[in-house]
Amino acid sequence: MLYEIIGIARPGNIAEVKEIVLSAGQIILRNGGVIRDIKNWGTFRLPNAISRHQVRYTKGHYFIMRYDAGIKTHQEVRETLAVDPRIIRAGGVKLGDGKLETLAKFRDIPWKRFE
C-alpha cells in the first residue's frame, strides 16, 4: 500500500530532521518497503500553538514521506515518530491500493511559504 506521513519537527536544526527521516526510512527499507518520495517543506508557523514535552511551539519544520509498505511497517513508523522527542506532531494516511491507475492521480502539491 502507498502511505504518506507528514511530520512536524522542532524548528531550527535541519540535522535533526535528517536523522528523523533516516530512522523512519531505515524501518521502511528493513521491512521490505520502498520509499517513493521525501520532501522538506521547511519551517512554517503552526496554525495553533502546540505543547509537546513541556515546551510550547509556535513554529515547526515540516517534512513529508511517501512510501510503499505493509500495515505493520506503517504502524511501526508511526509509533517510532510518536515517541521521538524531536517530533511535535506526525500523521499518516493510506493514499492508495497500490494500483497504477490510483497512483497516477497523486501529484505534487504547490505550497507557498509564508513567514
Automatic annotation (TrEMBL):
The keyword Cell cycle appears for this protein: no
Location in the cell: Mitochondrion
GO MF entry, a single one: structural constituent of ribosome
Pfam families: Ribosomal_S6 (PF01250)
Residues forming coiled coils: none
Family: Belongs to the bacterial ribosomal protein bS6 family.
Full protein name: Small ribosomal subunit protein bS6m
Organism for this UniProt entry: Cercophora newfieldiana
Source taxonomy: Eukaryota, Fungi, Dikarya, Ascomycota, Pezizomycotina
